[in-house]
Amino acid sequence: MNHADQSTRYEELRGRLTALRFLFSTNPEAEQARAYFDENIREYEFEIAMHALCDYLFEVRRPISSDVLAEIGKLHALMGVDDDCVSRMSAIV
């Protein structure tokens, strides 16, 4: 993959992950998880950001739509992440 392709891929991942930021609640208890997510997005640590989001959602048991779950699954596949996040999340959809 050349530099331009990699840059485009990173920007796509950044945009798609950032679009899921709304899933963090705005209450003060979520601030640390939201800040950790944002920091990892800024540093191009997308897999860590995804784990931060999934861990937060699972911890607070926030229901998500099937469309959001599908997007999380697509991002996992795009990044080559093989974990149980999507299956755990599907239990609270």
Features:
about 90 residues; globular; 5 helices; mainly alpha
Describe this structure in words.
With 93 residues, this protein is mainly alpha-helical. Helices cover 68% and strands 0% of the residues. The chain has one domain. Helix 2 runs antiparallel to helix 3. The longest helix is centred in the N-terminal third of the chain and has 16 residues, at 3-18. The chain is globular. The N and C termini lie far apart (36 Å). The model has no long low-confidence stretch (mean pLDDT 90).
What is the structure about, briefly put?
The chain is mostly helical. It is 68% helix and 0% strand.
- Average pLDDT figure: 90
What percent of residues are in strands?
A: under 5%
Please estimate the helix content.
55-70%
Number of structurally distinct domains: 1
Order of helices and strands: HHHHH
Termini separation comes to 36 Å
Poorly predicted runs of 5 or more residues: none
Q: Any chance you could write out the topology, listing elements then pairs?
A:
Blueprint: H1 3-18, H2 31-42, H3 46-60, H4 66-79, H5 85-90
Helix pairs in contact: 2-3
